[in-house]
């Protein structure tokens, strides 16, 4: 297709006129297409169809695609956080993590669940698509027992099982699309920016990384992951109240403005309030054997 003809047709101006509508209520590129369609030339409609197809591809990743996306996201994270090469501690984290993952709504992924400790004092944990879950030493120091370790890992498994990382691609790509459509630069330097428009989904990898490190998931995503964690803990035999007690400890240690859990998650107090309404069971006793296992594995953390 000749992009020069597309620009001369003025169809991109019609696209620009839909940007405000997109940001005010549209959630998918398909909705954008339906709004723009009556105003587009055939060339303009063809370009928009290319974008819709690209968007659909990224919101229906198969398990193998999700796995490789997750590996790339993890590689990005490892450029910011150094893995902690303590074999015994990492083996323990994988033991607990795979136990809770087995009780999730998605017990299997293409590459399986893998857990890695990060050598950082931040209070943080990350769930890359496909089952690659990272947790900092700082977060582990907040845990007083194995049930609390299981709680934070179950929360991250909840993000994976509900595919929150993959979903973060679509929304931010749509925002970038609408922003690009509405820029004056698109009108002045059309050829260059139309190319950016057609290739906008190539930045999806960075979308997920930004969500994990900078922007955080939505409040509804965090609530869904907390609910998933509480259900997982009950199924496996851990105390679901451990998630609340962990959040209470975190609430005393998080520093406003720090680049850690506080930056990317709702306040612990708000999450505790949400959990209190759904956890109706009584606290369970933590066995001495389980506590010894935790203390031995975490002594060097």
Q: Can you offer a commentary on this structure?
A:
- The structure is a single chain.
- With 301 residues, the chain is mainly alpha-helical.
- The protein folds into two domains: 3-61 and 167-213; 63-164 and 216-298, no CATH class.
- 66% of the residues lie in helices and 5% in strands.
- It contains 17 helices and three strands.
- The protein has a three-stranded mixed β-sheet with strand order 1-3-2, with helices on both faces.
- It starts with a helix and ends with a helix.
- Mean pLDDT is 75; it is low at 1-27 and 180-190.
Secondary structure topology:
Blueprint: H1 3-9, H2 11-25, H3 29-36, H4 42-59, H5 63-78, H6 87-101, E1 114-118, E2 125-128, E3 132-136, H7 137-142, H8 146-161, H9 164-181, H10 184-188, H11 190-198, H12 204-215, H13 219-236, H14 241-253, H15 261-264, H16 268-276, H17 288-298
Parallel strand pairs: 1-3
Antiparallel strand pairs: 2-3
Helix pairs in contact: 2-3, 2-9, 3-4, 5-12, 6-8, 8-13, 8-14, 9-12, 14-16
Structural class per helix/strand content?
Answer: mainly alpha
Total count of strands: 3
Number of helices: 17
Number of domains: 2
Domain Peptidase M48: 90-277
Protein name: Peptidase M48
Cofactor: Zn(2+)
Family: Belongs to the peptidase M48 family.
List keywords for this structure.
301 residues; mainly alpha; 2 domains; disordered N terminus
Summarize this entry quickly.
The protein has 301 residues and is mainly alpha-helical. The chain has 17 helices and 3 strands.
């Amino acid at each position: 297709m000749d992009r020069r003809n597309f620009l001369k047709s003025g169809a991109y101006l019609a696209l620009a006129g839909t940007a405000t509508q997109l940001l005010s209520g549209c959630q998918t590129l398909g909705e954008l297409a339906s709004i723009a369609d009556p105003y587009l030339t055939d060339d303009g409609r063809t370009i928009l169809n290319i974008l819709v197809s690209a968007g659909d591809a990224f919101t229906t990743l198969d398990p193998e695609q999700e796995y490789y996306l997750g590996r790339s996201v993890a590689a990005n994270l490892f450029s910011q956080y150094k893995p902690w090469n303590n074999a015994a501690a990492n083996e323990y984290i994988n033991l607990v993590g795979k136990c809770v993952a087995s009780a999730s709504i998605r017990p299997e992924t293409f590459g399986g669940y893998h857990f890695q400790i990060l050598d950082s004092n931040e209070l943080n944990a990350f769930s890359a698509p496909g089952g690659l879950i990272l947790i900092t030493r700082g977060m582990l120091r907040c845990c007083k027992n194995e049930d609390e370790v299981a709680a934070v890992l179950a929360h991250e498994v909840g993000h994976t099982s509900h595919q929150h990382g993959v979903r973060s691609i679509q929304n931010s790509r749509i925002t970038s699309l609408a922003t690009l459509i509405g820029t004056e630069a698109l009108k002045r330097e059309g050829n260059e920016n139309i190319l950016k428009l057609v290739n906008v989904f190539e930045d999806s990898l960075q979308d997920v990384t930004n969500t994990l490190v900078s922007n955080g998931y939505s409040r509804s995503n965090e609530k869904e992951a907390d609910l998933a964690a509480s259900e997982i803990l009950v199924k496996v035999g851990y105390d679901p109240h451990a998630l609340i007690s962990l959040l209470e400890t975190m609430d005393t240690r998080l520093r406003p403005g720090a680049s850690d859990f506080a930056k990317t998650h709702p306040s612990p107090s708000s999450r505790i309030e949400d959990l209190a309404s759904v956890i109706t069971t009584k606290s369970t006793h933590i066995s001495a054997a389980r506590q010894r296992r935790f203390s031995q594995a975490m002594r060097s953390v």
